[in-house]
Amino acid sequence: MVQACSSTLLYTLNHVLDYSKVNDAQVSGGSRRRDSEISTSKASQNIFGQTSEDYLCRLTQDVVEGVHFGHIMQEAAHNKTSSTPLGDHAESHLDPAMLLDEAVDSSSSSHSHTSDGVAVFLFMESHEAWFSMICAGAWKRLVMNLFGNSLKFCSAGHIEVTLKMIPDPKNPQKRMAHLMVLDTGIGMGEEFSKHGIFQPFVQENSLVNGTGLGLHIVKRIVDDMQGTIQVQSTLGSGTRFDVTIPIVELGTPPSETPLDGGQILDPPGILRNRTICLLSSIQESNGHADSRRTPLVHSYVKNIAEGWYHMNVIEADMSADVKADVYVAEASDFVMHARTNDQFSKIKSQQRRTVIVGTPSQLAQVGRECPGNVVELSYPLGPRALVRALYAALDRPDDLVFPTPPAAAANTLPGYMDLDPIEPQPKDLPAAKQEASHTDPTQQHLLLVDDNAINLKLLSTFVKKLNFNAETAIDGQDALTKYKNWSKKHTFTTILMDISMPKMNGFESSRAIREFEVQNGLQPAKIIALTALSSEASRREAEASGIDDFQMKPVSLKTLKGLFPEAA
Question: Where is this region: Disordered (predicted)?
Answer without folding.
Answer: 423-442
